[in-house]
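Please supply some protein, with fold tokens.
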Amino acid sequence: MLYFVKTPQLLKRLFSNMIWDIPSSEKVIYLTFDDGPTNKVTEWVLSELDKYNAKATFFCIGKNIQNNQDLFQKILRKKHAVGNHTYNHLNNWKVSKKTYLEDTKKCQKTLNDLTLEKKTKLFRPPYGKISPKTAKKLSEKEHKIIMWDVLSGDFDQSITKEKCTENVLKNTTSGSIVVFHDSVKASDNLYYCLPKTLAHFTNLGYVFKSIDT
């Protein structure tokens, strides 16, 4: 499985209309969690974040929100940010722009119906795959397309939990947007890596914030 753990600067410059990191003079890190909410896994993540008073951003799949509405509300009650990750976790390279935008709109309606406070405009494409034309359409609808600076690789079952942790600890810097997955598939690596990430960077004086819409 090939992927960049640390997003190359060239890629960030080529697709500068997307948000890859949030530069800051402060010691701040932006943890993000994709593919939830997932029974048990998301609850565990919320518990770990609480231990460090850490805030994060959850990019939720619409059908998972529908199936876990109480868990979604728990994310909101704990003042974490949420974002759109399409309704059915679609790969934009494999479906038409029309199908993809309709699926994204369906997820957005689900988010809006269940979010009582300010409506999120954050969007992350599943697999990080999105066409320029689709990205343009979403931007026209005021969506902020959030990519990442560091990909933990927690979803990659071919790497060890130690390697997953190394991916994060060696590549994360102030302003980094880091990707984890609150999914069953990623849970073995996540359960090992997330506590170590929170402890390591807290000891170095970092704080963890959610991405502001």
Remarks:
- The beta strands are 28-34, 57-60, 81-84, 122-123, 144-145, 150-151, 177-181, 207-208.
- DSSP finds eight helices and eight strands in the chain.
